Amino acid sequence: MPNQKILYITTEMYPYQEDTNMAAVVNKMALKMHNEGNDVRVFMPRFGQISERKFQLHEVIRLSGMNIIINDLDQPLIIKVASLPGERLQVYFIDNEEYFKRKQYYVDDEGNPFDDNDERAIFFARGVIETIKKLNWVPDVIHLNGWMSSFVPIYLKTYYESDTYFKDAKIVLSLYNEKDANLDKKISEKLAFDNISGLKALDNPTIKNFVIESMNYVNMVVKGDEFLDEDLDKGFNETTAPKSEYVDVDSINQLY
Question: Which H/E stretch holds residue 135?
């Protein structure tokens, strides 16, 4: 079914990240749907390891310049874009000096999770939503990959609930075995600033618990890894959302 507008929101994608299943799967899904005649966009964080020079990233001035307010603090949103090497597929990067300049992903050199991982996820989620609206491009399908993207449906169904922009978009969530970590206990205050409360994940805020929480806010949950760890598998089995076992990339269009 070509001519769909498909938005991939991901934390990893080959070749910007290598050697992970998620990065490879997102690359293959996006390219397959693009080559079948769909209008595909990809959004991901501009982590510090991604070389702007190597991958020819450039800032999109007309999309940059917004501020995202997190817990009463203004954070400037910078949007960069690149074509996937060798392809005519556009990848948009959410950037911010405070959150994404560092060279590590989610933990420091000693292996400790960054204190602001929660804010980075909120900034990423809201940054994607606001940028899509500014593009004036309404997706038919939003496919989420990676724990930071799990904040997108939570925001769409709460903070942005009265906004009709995404009302017809179907949201697909892929589950992957990502490394778990605690999130800042004050995340409840930061979400409360955006009038978001009552989430079960706030009782014990961790990366995995927010992914499990986000299953309640999507139209379809699918296994991104063929075999999930115990907690994710339990969440997958217990969710009332429609769900699918692992789907081969060649069959992903049937899911849509």
Answer: helix 117-135
